Amino acid sequence: MIEQFDAIVVGAGMSGNAAAYTLASQGLKVLQLERGEYPGSKNVQGAIMYANMLEKIIPDFRDDAPLERHLVEQRLWVLDDTSHTGIHYRSDDFNEAKPNRYTIIRAQFDKWFSRKVREAGATVLCETTATELVRDGNGKVIGVRTDRAGGVVFANVVVLAEGVSGLLGTRAGLREMPKPETVALAVKEMHFLPEEVIGQRFGVKGDEGCVIEAVGTISRSMAGLGFLYTNKESISLGIGCLVSDFAATMESPSALLDAMKNHPSIRPLIAGSEVKEYAAHLIPEGGYKAIPQLFGDGWVIVGDAAQLNNAIHREGSNLAMTSGRVAAEAIIKVKSRNGPMTKANLALYKTMLDDSFVIKDLKKYKDMPALLHTNSSNFFDSYPRLMSHAAQNFMRVDGTPKIEKEKNTTAAFINARSRWGLVSDAVRLALAWR
Amino acid sequence: MHIVICIKQVPDSAQIRVHPVTNTIMRQGVPTIINPYDLFALEEALKLRDVHGGEVTVLTMGPPMAEDSLRKALGYGADRAVLLTDRYFAGSDTLATSFALSQAIAKIGETFGRPDIVFTGKQTIDGDTAQVGPGIAKRLDLSQLTYVAKIASIDLDTREIEVARRAEGGTQLLKSRLPCLITMLEDTNEIRRGSLQQALCAARRQVVKWTAADAGIDDLTRCGLRGSPTVVKRVFAPTARAERAAQIDTAERGLQDIADELIADILTRRPALEHELAFNSGT
Amino acid sequence: MSTASQTTPRIAPGRAGVKKELPDHFKDYRHVWVFLELERGNVHPVSFELLGEGRKLADKLEVQLAGVVLGPPGEMVEDAVAEAFAYGADLVYIVDAPPLADYRNEPFAKALTDLVNTHKPEILLLGATTLGRDLAGSVATTLQTGLTADCTELDVDSDGSLAATRPTFGGSLLCTIYTLNYRPQMATVRPRVMPMPQRVDKPVGRVMRHKLSLVEDDIVTKVLGFLPDNQSAMANLAYADVVVAGGLGLGAAENLQLVKNLARAIGAEHGCSRPLVQKGWMPADRQIGQTGKTIRPKLYIAAGISGAIQHRVGVEGADLIVAINTDPNAPIFEFAHLGIVTDAIRFLPALTEAFTRRLSPHSRDKLAS
Ligand SMILES: Cc1cc2nc3c(=O)[nH]c(=O)nc-3n(C[C@H](O)[C@H](O)[C@H](O)COP(=O)(O)OP(=O)(O)OC[C@H]3O[C@@H](n4cnc5c(N)ncnc54)[C@H](O)[C@@H]3O)c2cc1C
Ligand SMILES: Cc1cc2nc3c(=O)[nH]c(=O)nc-3n(C[C@H](O)[C@H](O)[C@H](O)COP(=O)(O)OP(=O)(O)OC[C@H]3O[C@@H](n4cnc5c(N)ncnc54)[C@H](O)[C@@H]3O)c2cc1C
Ligand SMILES: Nc1ncnc2c1ncn2[C@@H]1O[C@H](COP(=O)(O)O)[C@@H](O)[C@H]1O
ipTM, 2 decimals? Predict the structure, then answer.
């Protein structure tokens, strides 16, 4: 018996679940394949989930989704070896009826999302890897082969939601293997602590949570970012740097993480915790310029697999959910007009996506990845050190006249990077940010 | 042939953590799995079905989320899944568990055909008692074959079964009669992967959900906390030993030196060992 | 486990606070019983360990300690009876009948259930062996009473009820379990968890003999044969006096030879942590710990073992624990007596050599003179 579906979704991450849910709830016959033991089993990270994008898919998700804490405080830290300079933003306004951002644990969240997908009517198969796209004589994708015995299934359209390291799209030549300069390797751990301890250490109560993002010497001159999220009874902590930087510097990701955990600003926050689940995962960071062709005859590509990830703002899952939903809506539209799933018809997906925040945001920062990458030692080592120095110099009351202090600081910056260098970094940063 | 197999969803105890202050189990983030011992029984059941025909019904008693485990079992190739779930079952010890399960098995017998074999795992990794299997056998008056390493033969006409059973100090070869209850020994099998067709069927199959009443249980005093003669009176962490190990200094010394000091230290603490060790090594 | 000592026990929720009056029909249940397990003609040593424990409970309760021997008529049973007295029983119940020659659930469960119903013990202890677990589960079900498996500690509460303590959640916690309102209170205990009591030759005391109310024809299950394990190839870990074990820290299967060499040099048994069994580096009967063997040697040397709780519970009864581990913070140093922070792969050969030197007749002569 040959099974024919309206759509096959490969992957049950954020983007795949968003797509499968949207398709199935509109009555399409959907098959979703996930290679993990269960949805989320390959996604161990604690993460931030953006409510707005999920509301557009499941408006009442707050009723039963496994949410850890809603965020009321964000800290941005610039670290040198022994200190941090930072901005905190905290507001009671975030204690709203429908909070805007939550921490989640992907393993649990994805499971919940997947249950919703199943309840919406999709057929979800776990422990099943899509190994190959099946095409007809004209090259149109008409289904996928799987690693199970007897394994070909057919569909009018295949949604590739296989994440950054999925092999299906690259094998089929639909997209390139991500380049070392456009993916970051993030390593991360879960640190378990009693709920009360987390409450005390971060000054939060109930379900309130806090995020810390840290740049500076912890990434050892590489372009990288450390992060710390509070969950109910655990802290997700990790650091990511570009794969190409790791290769060039021969730094080991786990050593980096160890050093970060031992940083005097971070150590007390995780002291006494029980560590579980060391995990490594890739994050696409190529930005706008790395986005591949998003659609073709019988296929669309969504989420991390399409490099739809905003590294500058640490946003990924929201772009993934939105691209999954938009792709599904495009497919539904094509189907409702009785149109075939051709390249020409599926271009609608691209049009709709261009119109969303996904592409608009990525376009805005299109030059950032290259800039940070090529100037990483300035942005991630020299400046953080200088900033710490300046702050310390300023805070120490030692009889030096303030005017002298300011002079010293300026001189230190110029010594380190020349006046021209400073100006050019500032200009380039401003241009890239624009 | 109709086979019923009982599986239990358990927290992956490798990942269990204990709250350092309250001594309660921190379940957050702890994945649940099918009790690994049950998979050996499940595979045995599937193999028997492949040879003798018939159906395999998986049964679990647990909270609604135990459905995940049943879905997995369907994915491996089981034909039917029954979830026995009801708040009355909360707090069951092994006696109450085996009561509820045996009632459900009787109901499965009435509804889907009498089972020829009931399987359970050797034991669970959370309860770790190995008592539920024998409890079910006794209540349903099935012949009880525990720690089975191999099913040598089954004759459906004479209803005879021969098994090799792990016993203290050796292997027992037993001949018994159907219907029987078998608890399977570990490492006897490896769970299979279903084909794509099987996986598709499984994904679409409905799990049968029964409350106590659905399973025909009238006497709720025999269920859950009320039906459990054992009571957990207190839970506590093992006491730490007062002192950590005395460390033998290893700085800037040869290995032989360190070894000699270690041996001297051992023998000072336990002088009698000198003779034992020598005696044992035959010198 | 570092915080363990300060924590006060918590009262579990639910019925735990409740302790009802024992129903009248259970009030005449008295005395402590230990089931003596016969294994191919010999009494399984766990039965003696239980007699030692049962003695303490009986003394506290000021009741008698009885042994229960089930077996075929003849010498085997009589020998077991003598042993029961030698290890502290005040009286022994016997059911001897031909169907009890080999263990099978039906006749054994029937015999034991009938004995309990006739003589009404308040406590019944069995070894947590394959036989003991098979039997205890069905007897408790028939009697509709509570059964606590794999206890590590048994005690009598102020009101005379049995407090049975056992590991739970993979050994991370212990719990104390009571059987309220039902009798007998049943418990199983794994071999080597309790110390072996002193054997004292004593005359055979009071013996109560019973008939089996079943005949062979009533019994569905038949024994076709028994293949004894190859004793020489089998690990006798549980009862070894000296044990050397290796863990994942040894890095590769071939390094296990270092453990075996040391074991051979000092006449020890060798064992391992669970991951090595899972990797197929060692057979399952060499695994020490919660899901392997419990050991109680006079000396235990652990090389490259972190000391996870599941391992710890299997070795805590050892008189002297020596740990070799590269990580000074490895949990094993929290319960070992002697520790060496060093690379076991390099250290084991040195230790083997040093032991061999020390134990050689030559050096012994020198020491003696
Ligand atoms: C350490 C870390 C922290 C992060 N933190 C955040 C955060 O706080 N907030 C945020 O918004 N984003 C965060 N991100 C990014 C975010 O996780 C991703 O953008 C998002 O998960 C992408 O979703 P996706 O569905 O495209 O891919 P994925 O979530 O990677 O899902 C792909 C799925 O497809 C499956 N799959 C792959 N190939 C096949 C195949 N051939 N057959 C079947 N199944 C297959 C995989 O098993 C996987 O489940 C973080 C990323 C990392 C690594
Ligand atoms: C339900 C359940 C039951 C279990 N039952 C058991 C059981 O019965 N028995 C059991 O053992 N485990 C059991 N476990 C597993 C247990 O939790 C641990 O995972 C296991 O004991 C760890 O084995 P290990 O110490 O060999 O390995 P690891 O924990 O990986 O430790 C290796 C150690 O070696 C050290 N090391 C590394 N290199 C060297 C070197 N060159 N020289 C010296 N030291 C070195 C390391 O510092 C580390 O401490 C069970 C787990 C579960 C979930
Ligand atoms: N709640 C349950 N639901 C289904 N089967 C169970 C349940 N509890 C125990 N079992 C079965 O009984 C076996 C022994 O469990 P235990 O006595 O808890 O060690 C397990 O391997 C399962 O097959």
Answer: 0.80
